[in-house]
Specification:
single chain; 358 residues; mainly beta; 7-stranded antiparallel β-sheet; 6-stranded antiparallel β-sheet; 1 helix; 23 strands; 41% strand; disordered N terminus
């Protein structure tokens, strides 16, 4: 049998899953595809918008670079103009869990170099910033890249020397924050390409993308890998990428225009029951909250051949674990407080989102 020799790429061999970023091709959007306009909102799974004001629109888009295997991107545009200054900022961020960066050995003398690659397009040319920092924001680094041609997809590659200082816990808390900055200079620094003891997100050379509501910015194909060079984007299967995202957020909705069964549960009284929602993967942490949409009547309980609408919207219960979520379901009156009941979403306006985001 012939021995096949594997060539080392950069400073590290590629084994297993190489892209530390999740949903870097922006295709998983459990929360839906409507544009979001508020700080703290997620455009697509794992990609969060951070701003000092609700003066932007961010939405999943089908505008992508040709021939690269992508079919989704994030599209960001200003909804009002603003000038750089104290308290002015916007960036879209991706948070990496400590468990997923432990092999980088950051915070120690053996810290590994990484390379970030991505595809970007903007109507506004000039210098942009990509920032990286730890959870405590005590160590940060800013890297510049230039968009040379307006409305043209360009691939950018940035190599980052591993950080030997600071706290980078290897656990289920936040490890690395990656920020793609579009505007602001409140926390800008002139130090580029070096780790510093400060909470900084951008370079002082950052363009003001928010100087016109006609501006457009697109990004996709974000990859973070060990080594000093970039390889082709790792296209994972849809099922695998969805499962990775569901560790942080799980969304169940009215599906295929039919009543959606959430799961079985019991009742305490004729007006209070508990749904045991089985989670598809073990979440990062025990869920502390749920989101939901619609009114109480959009959720029903069925049992003893009777369907009853809820009288209050579902609410998380102080119980459960990383694999199940216990949800209180309140209704007016059941015909019996015994037996097994099935909880359902009965209207397209309803959904339940279980949150364990970083």
């Amino acid at each position: 049998m012939a021995l096949i020799k594997v060539k080392s790429r950069g400073t590290d061999n590629v084994t297993g899953r190489k892209n530390i970023v999740m949903n870097g091709d922006m295709r998983i959007a459990q929360r839906g595809t409507a544009a979001v306009t508020t700080s703290g909102s997620f455009t697509v799974d794992r990609w969060k918008n951070i701003s000092n004001a609700s003066d932007f629109s961010a939405v999943q888009s089908t505008t992508v670079p040709s021939g690269q295997g992508f079919y989704k991107s994030i599209h960001i545009s200003p909804t009002s103009t603003k000038s750089p200054g104290s308290g002015t900022y916007f960036f879209t961020s991706h948070y990496i869990e400590g468990f997923n960066m432990g092999h980088l050995d950051w915070g120690n003398s053996g810290a590994k170099t990484v390379t970030v690659s991505f595809w970007v397009r903007s109507s506004k040319t000039g210098i942009y910033s990509m920032g990286m920092k730890n959870a405590g924001a005590t160590r940060s680094r800013q890297q510049e890249y230039t968009i040379s041609s307006a409305n043209t997809w360009e691939k950018k590659i940035i190599t980052v020397t591993g950080e030997t200082s600071g706290s980078w816990p290897v656990d289920n808390t936040r490890g690395i924050a990656i920020d793609f900055c579009l505007a602001g200079n409140a926390s800008a620094t002139g130090t580029v390409g070096s780790w510093i003891s400060a909470n900084s997100n951008m370079s002082t050379n950052q363009v003001n993308f928010f100087d016109s509501t006609s501006n457009n910015f697109y990004i996709t194909g974000v990859q973070l890998e060990v080594g000093d060079s970039a390889s082709d984007f790792e296209h994972r299967s849809h099922g695998e990428e969805l499962s990775l995202c569901q560790r942080y957020y799980y969304h169940v909705k009215y599906d295929d225009s039919q009543t959606t069964y959430l799961g079985a549960g019991g009742v305490y009284t004729t007006s209070l029951g508990m749904l045991i929602l089985q989670l598809p993967v073990e979440m990062r942490a025990r869920p502390s909250s749920i989101t939901q949409s619609g009114t109480a009547s959009h959720y029903t309980v069925w049992g003893n051949a009777t369907t009853t609408a809820l009288s209050s919207v579902p609410a998380i219960r102080a119980s459960g674990n990383k694999k199940v979520c216990a949800i209180d379901m309140t209704f007016n009156t059941l015909n019996s407080a015994t037996g097994t009941y099935v909880y359902r979403i009965a209207n397209a306006a309803g959904y339940i989102g279980v949150n364990a985001e970083l």
